[in-house]
Amino acid sequence: MMFAVAMTFIDQTIVSIAAPDIVRELGLSASGMQWVVNAYLLALAAFFALGGRLADLYGPRRVVVIGTIVFVVSSVLCGCVPKGDAAQGWLIAFRATQGFGAALLFPAALAVVVAVFPPERRGRALALFFGISGALTAIGPLLGGWLTEWTWRAVFWVNVPVAVVALVLTGLAHISDRRRAGTLDVPGAALMAIGMGLSVLGFQQAWAWGWDSAATWGCIAGGLVILYAFVRYERGVRHPLIDLRVFRDKAFTVDAAVLFFAMLAFVPLFFFASVYAQVSLSASPNQAALFLLYVFAGFAIASQWGGRILDKQGARPALKMGTVVGAVGFALWAGKLTDLSMHDQWPYACLAGAGIGFILAPASTDAVNRAIGPSYGEVTGITQTVRNFAASVGMAVFGTILTHVTNTNVVNTLESRGFSSNVAHEVARDVTESITGNGDDSTPTGTGPAASAMRDAMDAVRMDFAEANQWVFYGMAIALGVGFLCALRHPGGRAVTEQSAEEPRKTPSATG
């Protein structure tokens, strides 16, 4: 199961390193490239609970196999995207189907793990599961940097051998395909997918449409209203997609809230730090991957420490420590971005990664352990949906901030160099579209105004982009700060991992 889910976590971040090469070869817009990353995260969040419910109804082994096949076929098609006008739509569409395959695969795989371990060993097993999955998310950029040296298409094709091994191992494991009685909540699944999609669309397109646009706020408000309707609908369904009663547990609610604010920063960090390294620091894809290794180093060390704190003292100390360390790390890192020195930034990158490491496994495991038996799957389904939805919102919100501030900075730079306001705005938009999704150290060529402006003001534009990234990183620090306020409300104590003697033992749900 770890082999199977490895693909889904690596794919959350591996595309970040290849983004400049993809944009350059296919001619994608900055918004289009962000959607290539976000389509995967959004589909994963929107269909996660549906994947778990399908595993309940049809058996986890079958759904693992189907999800793996959908995922790897979509990966191959992403790598085979043709050049031309259809490229952007093609890539976004198959990234979304990749996310759908992952949404089928992951909860079913987690259900298998849950069924294998008895309650008294489940906490340690899941801590390892979530810890390794977080580490795989961080490894994505490193693998992406190496593969991109050959071709950016390899970041998608690398999933093929992993999927083959996963399918072979799944067959050899002789996994039991236990099914549960019930029906599929199709209306609930549709409401969740539409609500999440609309709200993220509004945040993502705010750069293009403007924050004063009725379309922007219509999408955001419409999505939130539909998600509210989903919650109301689920309360009256006999077999809901997600059993929302788990929110009655205060510790679980706090765990989910802290995960939301942590994941606002964690997955988007790899995209924005990678593009920053390649634009402002003129780093190659491999150098950008090594830059992100500092984050992973801090994450790996802290995740082990956080697991020990969880075992001995419960989740509350780990969550408080993680949110404080993460907020301080991101804030200090933001202050160093304009120094344009990779060497000077590594302590703060480690600190930011450590903050997330203290949070991820303890919060996920504590939330899972807050419900046993029939509600176990619903708990894990909600936490994973929250994590991936937060990552999508983070990509959209921080992407909008980055493009807006970059555009403003470049306009000011060009006007200070004698350009008229109209020309400065036109060129700045072209420049912003280029560098927010296409960072490299090459000098632009061509005879158009954008190319000329870039050649004349390349150093200033690199600094403009670094200053825009400061806003993003300070935003991530604020997100962790809000997470700290949530962590203060955690009731503390260790979650009960054994089922009460009064409750009948039931097969855990696969909502995972």
TrEMBL record:
Transmembrane spans: 34-51, 63-84, 96-118, 125-148, 154-176, 188-208, 214-231, 252-276, 288-306, 318-334, 346-365, 386-405, 471-488
Coiled-coil positions: none
Domain Major facilitator superfamily (MFS) profile: 1-495
CDD domains: MFS_MMR_MDR_like
Source organism: Streptomyces lanatus
Gene3D superfamilies: MFS general substrate transporter like domains, Multidrug resistance protein D
Keywords annotated in UniProt: Antibiotic resistance, Membrane, Transmembrane, Transmembrane helix
Protein name: MFS transporter
Membrane topology note: Multi-pass membrane protein
Any Pfam family the entry gives: MFS_1
Compartments, as annotated in UniProt: Cell membrane
